[in-house]
């Protein structure tokens, strides 16, 4: 496959950055998108150019590290996949592909396509945990009965890999799908009930302080989320937040 | 001090403006005190004001519809709405405040949301994952706002002037003719109809969105979405029908 790539190049956080056009040849339809970028970088290096920086780690859709806004969509045109799971067969020979970093005031660009998503970590630190005794007599979680429906919903919420595609896709740059998933995961389980009130208040407060936008329920996040996290989680967070505000 | 009845009416007529000022003041207080500081609280306030406005729309729809079927029914309802103190001095100010609250909040949210992405994408395929109506609430809302300006100028201002400035005589039969006259102009009729189309789009997203905002996403949501879509189409269509009916029938 022969392709034209339009890639965002930015030397460092201070640099203004710009879209730059490149030609690339010899891409197999069976390659993943990241392999295509590997080939691209090899060609760049051989030609004495600067390879493009992009995030990746597991390359099997479980770590949430790969990002990229490809042809106007987070993780590209396919559904339910991360960029490392995206195949080049989704594109045609001769296509032009635009590749940009995830854009959000809370995801500053580090270099080229690499963005800093520590704002998600800070939201997690604000309440995305439960306090349990780990000093030798840890209680097995399975000793507490949980009904199947709640357990399933909690598990679905827990599959969020914190990739940030929801923020990147949202026209408002809102992080509510991510935070909704993290709040729901604990709100649905008995272990999470104890700290439920402070959790949702603190996580939402941190989310707002990071500068994420306000959800207007367009549903773009749910469509683009590689893990199929549902909008129900945002509604649940809103309920949790309302009842926590009454209590707190 | 003895206040005669026309003075009472003058005081009453200005009540809405005091309420509006008070509301602007209280939005400011709420924003500062943190009551509406959080994103979710703002969303809920947006949803509640939107739901309230939809109730008002339903009521307005039924009154307008009577003008198609019976001049005298329309006149007597209009007379009641225009002269009942509860409607004039309690419900009307609440409504005005509700509208103002809703669109100010809409603009505030919109500015914050734009700030959340200071550098925009070179390529953003919004249509791939969200409906036009959901992505352009600020556009449909702004058209509705412009329409409200025209609508107030057409009906509310002359009505206030008649009652509280010129002290026109109580006349139970004037409303229908005032209405019919307004829709003689093809330009006004067209502007009204275009606005109702955008109102429909606003509500096609707004109805179900407001339930999601207040945290209601459950087994009733599918049904509510269907009902919302019906509401968002039938109510504006009814307004279009009434405007066209009076344009072509007099
Ligand atoms: C009769 C008039 C109106 C009705 C019935 C109405 C109804 C609604 C409803 C039900 C929502 C959904 C709330 C939510 O998502 O939680 C909404 C959202 C919105 N409205 Fe209106 N609206 C009206 C007029 C306006 C006006 C004049 C503006 C002025 C700009 C406006 C701007 C917005 C915006 C920006 C949103 C999106 C915010 C969001 O979804 O969170 N609306 N409206
Ligand atoms: S909710 Fe989905 S899109 Fe958002 S961070 Fe989690 S996995 Fe990624
Ligand atoms: S690299 Fe781990 S999810 Fe893509």
The helix/strand order of chain B is HHHHHHHHH
Alpha-carbon distance between the termini of chain B? Answer: 49 Å
**Shape field of chain A:** elongated
| Biggest interface, CB < 8 A | A-B, 47 and 40 residues
Strand content of chain A: 5-15%
- Counting DSSP E segments of at least 2 residues, the number of strands of chain B comes to 0
Fraction of residues in helix of chain A: 25-40%
Q: Look at the helices and sheets of chain B and give the structural class.
A: mainly alpha
Say what the CATH topology of the largest domain in chain A is.
Fumarate Reductase Iron-sulfur Protein, Chain B, domain 2
Q: What is the CATH level 1 assignment of the largest domain in chain A?
A: Mainly Alpha
How many domains of chain A?
A: 2
Number of strands of chain A: 7
Question: Strand count, sense and closure of the main sheet of chain B?
Answer: none
Q: What separation lies between the terminal Cα atoms of chain A?
A: 59 Å
- At the fourth level of CATH, the homologous superfamily of the largest domain in chain A is Alpha-helical ferredoxin
Instruction: Indicate the structural class of chain A.
Output: alpha+beta
Overall spatial form of chain B: globular
Main sheet: strand order of chain A: 2-1-5-3-4
The proportion of residues forming helix of chain B, as a percent range, comes to over 70%
The average pLDDT of chain A is: 96
Number of continuous helical runs of chain A:
9
């Amino acid at each position: 496959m022969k392709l034209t790539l339009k890639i965002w190049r930015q030397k460092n956080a201070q640099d203004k950055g710009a879209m730059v056009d490149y030609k690339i040849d010899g891409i197999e339809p069976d390659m993943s998108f990241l392999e295509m970028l590997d080939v691209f970088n090899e060609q760049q290096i051989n030609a004495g150019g600067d390879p493009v920086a992009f995030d990746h780690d597991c390359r099997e859709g479980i770590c949430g590290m790969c990002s990229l806004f490809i042809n106007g969509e987070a993780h590209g045109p396919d559904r339910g996949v991360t960029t490392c799971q995206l195949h080049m067969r989704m594109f045609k020979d001769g296509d032009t592909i635009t590749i940009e970093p995830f854009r959000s005031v809370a995801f500053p660009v580090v270099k080229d396509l690499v963005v800093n998503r520590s704002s998600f970590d800070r939201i997690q630190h604000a309440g995305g945990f439960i306090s349990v005794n780990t000093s030798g007599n840890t209680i097995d979680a399975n000793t507490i009965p949980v009904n199947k429906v709640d357990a399933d919903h909690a598990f679905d919420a827990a599959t969020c890999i914190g990739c940030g595609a929801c923020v990147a896709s949202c026209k408002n740059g809102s992080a509510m799908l991510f935070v909704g998933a993290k709040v729901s995961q604990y709100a649905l389980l008995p272990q999470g009930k104890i700290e439920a009130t402070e959790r949702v208040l603190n996580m939402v407060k941190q989310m707002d302080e990071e500068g994420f936008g306000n959800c207007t329920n367009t549903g773009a996040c749910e469509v683009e989320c590689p893990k199929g996290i549902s909008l129900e989680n945002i509604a649940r967070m809103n309920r949790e937040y309302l009842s926590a505000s009454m209590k707190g | 001090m003895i206040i005669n009845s026309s003075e009472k009416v003058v005081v009453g007529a200005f009540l809405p403006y005091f309420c509006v000022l008070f509301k602007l003041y209280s939005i400011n207080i709420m924003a500062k005190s943190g009551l509406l500081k959080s994103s979710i609280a703002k969303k809920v306030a947006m949803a509640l004001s939107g739901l309230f406005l939809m109730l008002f729309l339903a009521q307005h729809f039924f009154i307008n519809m009577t003008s198609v079927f019976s001049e005298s029914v329309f006149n007597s309802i209009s007379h009641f709405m225009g002269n009942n103190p509860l409607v004039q001095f309690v419900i009307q100010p609440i409504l005005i405040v509700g509208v103002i609250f809703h669109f100010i909040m809409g603009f505030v949210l919109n500015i914050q949301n734009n700030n959340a992405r200071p550098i925009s994408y070179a390529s953003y395929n919004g249509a791939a994952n969200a409906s036009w109506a959901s992505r352009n609430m600020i556009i449909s809302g702004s058209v509705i706002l412009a329409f409200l300006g025209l609508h107030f100028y057409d009906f509310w201002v002359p009505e206030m002037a008649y009652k509280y400035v010129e002290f026109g005589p109580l006349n139970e039969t004037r409303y229908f003719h005032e209405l019919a006259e307004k829709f003689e102009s093809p330009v006004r009729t067209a502007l009204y109809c275009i606005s109702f189309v955008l109102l429909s789009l606003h509500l096609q997203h707004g109805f179900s969105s407001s339930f999601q905002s207040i945290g209601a996403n459950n087994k009733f949501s599918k049904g509510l979405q269907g009902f919302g879509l019906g509401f968002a189409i039938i109510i504006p269509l009814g307004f279009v029908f009434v405007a066209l009916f009076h344009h072509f029938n007099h």
